[in-house]
């Protein structure tokens, strides 16, 4: 995966084009982050479709390293509340580990994201937040 490939992926994510995002993935990927696991196109659309009703989320890539087997990204994830996402709403979706956010509030988080690749497609994803 090249930086240009990843920039296209991030642009699709920022545009909420979940089908294009999922096209970068292998047939049965494993995305695991913050106690959420996504393995299908439908799960990706369900999770982000829910979340993005409440927040505008954008990824800004600061550093990228890529090879045939791994893409490593350091960047800023900016989350802006567009509707109140309360602890009760999160708990109702089994997402109590996520931070609530009020409409108009902005959270910025530095993330390190590793994408394991196979045959040019993303096979698994892991990420960590940095305080």
UniProtKB/TrEMBL annotation:
<protein>
    <submittedName>
        <fullName>Nuclear transport factor 2 family protein</fullName>
    </submittedName>
</protein>
<dbReference type="Pfam" id="PF12680">
    <property type="entry name" value="SnoaL_2"/>
</dbReference>
<dbReference type="InterPro" id="IPR032710">
    <property type="entry name" value="NTF2-like_dom_sf"/>
</dbReference>
<feature type="domain" description="SnoaL-like">
    <location>
        <begin position="7"/>
        <end position="123"/>
    </location>
</feature>
<dbReference type="InterPro" id="IPR037401">
    <property type="entry name" value="SnoaL-like"/>
</dbReference>
